[in-house]
Amino acid sequence: MTALSKVYGDVFSLFAGPTLMVVLNGYKVVRDALSNHPEVFSDRPDIPAIAIMTKRKGIVFAPYGPVWRKQRKFCHTTLRNFGLGKLSLEPCILQGLDTIKSQLLQERGAGGVDLAPLISTAVSNVICSMALGQRFHHDDQEFRTLLNLMSRGLEICVNSPAVLINVFPLLYYLPFGVFRELRQVERDITVFLKRIIQTHRKSLDPGNPRDLVDMYLLEMLAQQAAGEPDTSFTEDYLFYIIGDLFIAGTDTTTNSVLWILLYMVLYPNIQEQVQKEIDATIGRHRSPSMTDKGSLPLTEAMIMEVQRLTVVVPLAIPHMTSMDTEFCGYNIPKGTVIIPNLWSVHRDPTVWDEPDRFNPARFLDSEGKLLRKEYFIPFGIGRRVCMGEQLAKMELFLMVTSLLQTFTFSLPEGLAPPSLQGRFGLTLAPSPFTACVNPRSSR
Ligand code: HEM
């Protein structure tokens, strides 16, 4: 799409079947639409394959309007109460890292380790703690099954013949192949999440809410007691909210951490410089804390540069116009699907010097201090900006710092360097790779 924009301009349209889509490219246009005209560009389209499964409830795919606003606000505030953006969340993130580290020590060998399962467990456990009040062990069969079901479900929706459901919705009900598998995946996830909600309902203590599910159940009861007639706070809605938090919060963060480690394997000199900075600021014994962030500009610049180049949600989540509008000289009708091409923003040569080059120093000034750039938008911008941005930033910083403090990651001997191409699903994941994990001496 970025290549097409070079031919057709920063705003161009195409049809996906009968659906008109407008692709927005480059920083200026994306910002103008999402930040300056939020009332027009913040709706979500009704994508049949997704609508069948989400019923357009939850947050991510909910239509722009008062229900979405209330649900998003409630979840954001509740997650903040449970530590989002605060130091109290650190132990929860670091606990998962201790498990990863001991696992890495056990599994390391000359052939290298596949880091993906360990990282994804640690990441999803953070959401599990905040939303469900429980953590799962890496080997927990039920938990592994849930994670596998979620990624399989996404893969089927985005990367299989099941995408045809978007053109012929009745295909969803076909009794064979990926269509049948998709329905089974959906049923299995439903059983898992409904059971968790039920357990919470039975043990709910209004004076001591343990997690987001408890808070939600209490809000539901409060609204019922107040006789709120059109409340959207229902157990059914809660189910979709939990699903959203998992789907939005697991793959995105896991893939970001994996991309960062992959770049460290491929750029050992940058890895060494980052480790030197960590050694000088934190040393090798104390766990990293968010309070160290300001003293680790290179580490942060490296994380941002990998996020810039890899853009794990490259086309954001589709938006939709909620009214007819004139934009950049074009008439765009109500109901048009809008694709904000975040990838093109991060490779926009009018705002980035040598955009294809990996160069963490672009985020540092001449004194080595961190430079914030408004055109760095891996979490999107505007009203639909990622709700988990603060949480994701904490996770990325603490996980990456802690892992590089303890280990050096390198390419297994004799293996060709892994590709930087990525695999496109709902998020852009690195192609599977293994890395040698060498413990650093504890000085
Ligand atoms: C590095 C990790 C992450 C990245 C790069 C990322 C990126 C994004 C992007 C690009 C969007 C779409 C913005 C748009 O539609 O314009 C989004 C939406 C969203 N993200 Fe994230 N995200 C990350 C982690 C998380 C986490 C950990 C959570 C969990 C709390 C989360 C929750 C959400 C939600 C709920 C939405 C939908 C917001 C809405 O429609 O109102 N994300 N994210």
Automatic annotation (TrEMBL):
Subcellular localization(s) per the UniProt record: Endoplasmic reticulum membrane; Microsome membrane; Mitochondrion inner membrane
Q: Which GO terms describe its cellular component?
A: endoplasmic reticulum membrane; mitochondrial inner membrane
- Cofactor(s) this protein requires: heme
* Matching InterPro entries: Cyt_P450, Cyt_P450_CS, Cyt_P450_E_grp-I, Cyt_P450_E_grp-I_CYP2D-like, Cyt_P450_sf, Cytochrome_P450_fam2
Under Enzyme Commission nomenclature, its number is: 1.14.14.80
Database matches in Gene3D superfamilies: Cytochrome P450 (1.10.630.10)
Q: Which GO terms describe its molecular function?
A: heme binding; iron ion binding; long-chain fatty acid omega-hydroxylase activity; steroid hydroxylase activity
Q: How does it sit in the membrane?
A: Multi-pass membrane protein
Q: Which parts pass through the membrane? A: none
Q: Where does heme bind?
A: 386
Catalysed reaction equations from the record: (5Z,8Z,11Z,14Z)-eicosatetraenoate + reduced [NADPH--hemoprotein reductase] + O2 = 20-hydroxy-(5Z,8Z,11Z,14Z)-eicosatetraenoate + oxidized [NADPH--hemoprotein reductase] + H2O + H(+); (5Z,8Z,11Z,14Z)-eicosatetraenoate + reduced [NADPH--hemoprotein reductase] + O2 = 19-hydroxy-(5Z,8Z,11Z,14Z)-eicosatetraenoate + oxidized [NADPH--hemoprotein reductase] + H2O + H(+); N-[(5Z,8Z,11Z,14Z)-eicosatetraenoyl]-serotonin + reduced [NADPH--hemoprotein reductase] + O2 = 2-oxo-N-[(5Z,8Z,11Z,14Z)-eicosatetraenoyl]-serotonin + oxidized [NADPH--hemoprotein reductase] + H2O + H(+); an omega-methyl-long-chain fatty acid + reduced [NADPH--hemoprotein reductase] + O2 = an omega-hydroxy-long-chain fatty acid + oxidized [NADPH--hemoprotein reductase] + H2O + H(+)
Any GO BP annotation:
xenobiotic metabolic process
Q: Which UniProt keywords are given for this protein, alphabetically ordered?
A: Endoplasmic reticulum, Heme, Iron, Lipid metabolism, Membrane, Metal-binding, Microsome, Mitochondrion, Mitochondrion inner membrane, Monooxygenase, Oxidoreductase, Transmembrane, Transmembrane helix
- Signal peptide limits: none
* Origin superkingdom: Eukaryota
Q: What is its main location?
A: endoplasmic reticulum
Q: What is the annotated role of this protein in its UniProt record?
A: A cytochrome P450 monooxygenase involved in the metabolism of arachidonic acid and its conjugates. Mechanistically, uses molecular oxygen inserting one oxygen atom into a substrate, and reducing the second into a water molecule, with two electrons provided by NADPH via cytochrome P450 reductase (CPR; NADPH-ferrihemoprotein reductase). Acts as an omega and omega-1 hydroxylase for arachidonic acid and possibly for other long chain fatty acids. May modulate the arachidonic acid signaling pathway and play a role in other fatty acid signaling processes.
The text of the family note is: Belongs to the cytochrome P450 family.
Q: What is this protein called?
A: Cytochrome P450 2U1
